[in-house]
Structures are given as structure tokens and as C-alpha cells.
Amino acid sequence: MARIRLFIDHPLAAGQPVPLDPGQAHYLGGVMRLTPGAVVEVFNGRDGAWSARILAAAKRGGSLEVLDQSAPQRNPPDLWLCFAPIKKARTDFIVEKAAEMGAARIMPVQTDFTNSERIRQDRLQAHAVEAAEQCGGTFVPAVADLVPLARLLDAWDASRRILWADEAIAGPAETLAGLPRGPWAILIGPEGGFSNPERARLSALPFVSRVSLGPRILRADTAAVAALALWQAALGDWQ
């Protein structure tokens, strides 16, 4: 049986007592039927993964005792994913896969054709945590609140390049081998693509690189996964 893993927003070190919130305590004791003395794995996104013994797990909370480190901290490359939210389940999918594939930050953006005018940032952050728990990760990307694309670009640090997955140039998949390493962001547009004014602004920015994701026009959630894989293979930590 795979070891149960929990994200714990608390310092971790051998012998450290760690409190459980009611939801975590219920999950361990009520859902997984674990009793005091059982060992789980915990991580906080900073100190690697650690084995921890359950001291108590009741409806109102519980506690763990940290034992020893089971895996070192592994941080992703400096890659952000910026995307226009789509339907609820597909937005959840994008956040989960971005966390699994090594995005360091996830940034929903409001575009002219974005269908969603608001998001539940706390719910999306919980999806990122769950993805890290289930996939053996030790890092959880922060999920930002929804921000208009124009405001995002106004405040953008030009030292971070943007890889724009542009559906308008569908064709042979492109290699990123000639692009510089360093901080990057991937930009995925909404269903229907970017508006003409948005396209004109993005095309004029010197730190934006347009890229084709192949001969087929992809849905936004598929495009996010494809672009992350393309970047990781060429400029990230898949090499």
C-alpha cells in the first residue's frame, strides 16, 4: 500500500510535534482508519518529505510527531503557467497537471474572451496541494488570484520571458532549443483565442516568443499540458 502523504504548513524536523487541522485528522482517522502509532509521510514545500507518527487523530484535530527525512526537497525550475480559466472541471485539470509537471507558480488571467469572471483561488490552491500529495512531490506551486491580462503585462518583469502558445500558427511543432534559459512563463489563451488587440500587444513585446504546439488546434487544457511538456523537455529539468 502506498504511503499516505499530507501537506503540512508547519516547520518539519526530527522530533518536531505537528498539529493536524480537523480536515486532516478526519482524513487520517475517519477516512483512512489509521490509529495512533501509524506512520505517514508529510511535507511543507520547503524541507523535503518526512516520516511522521500519528499521536492523535480525532474529529476536532490531532497531532503528529516527525521522525526522519524520507526525501530531500525538490523544487521545480523557475517556470510560471499563465492561463485563461475555462469550465470548472477543466480549470481544475490545468492546475492539477501544472503542479504535477513542475510549474513553480500558477496564474489565472482574465482576457477579452475569458468565460469565467471569477475563480475560487482557495479551491484551486487545494487542487495543487492534492496533486503534490498524490504524485510524491515536495513542492506546491502557489496559485494566484485572477488578474486581467493587461494589468499582468503592465507590471511584467521583462527578464522573465513569455512562451506564447499561439493557436493561430498551428503547424509543425517547434523546437525551443535556441531559446535562452532562465525564468520563463507559459501563456495559454481562452477558448476562442486572444482578441486582436491582445494579439497585437503580445506580438509587440520583445520578451514574448510565439510557438506552435503542432498541426492541430488544441483545447486550452490540452495546450497547457503540451506547452509544459515542450518547455520542460527543452529548457527545464526533464533533460
Instruction: Profile the largest sheet.
Output: 7 strands, parallel
Instruction: Give me the number of helical elements.
Output: 6
Q: Please trace the helix and strand order, writing H or E for each element.
A: EEHEEEEHEHEEHEEHEH
Mean pLDDT: 93
Total DSSP E strands: 12
Task: Provide the gyration radius in Å.
Answer: 20 Å
The protein's oligomeric status is: single chain
Helix-strand category: alpha/beta
The low-confidence runs, each spanning 5 or more residues with pLDDT under 50, are: none
The general outline is: elongated
Q: Which range best describes the helical content: under 10%, 10-25%, 25-40%, 40-55%, 55-70% or over 70%?
A: 25-40%
Distance between the termini: 31 Å
Strand content: 25-35%
Description of the structure:
This protein is α/β, with parallel strands linked by helices and 239 residues long. A hairpin with a 5-residue loop joins strand 3 and strand 4. Helix 2 packs across helix 3 and helix 2 packs parallel to helix 6. It is elongated and about 60 Å long. The two termini are 31 Å apart.
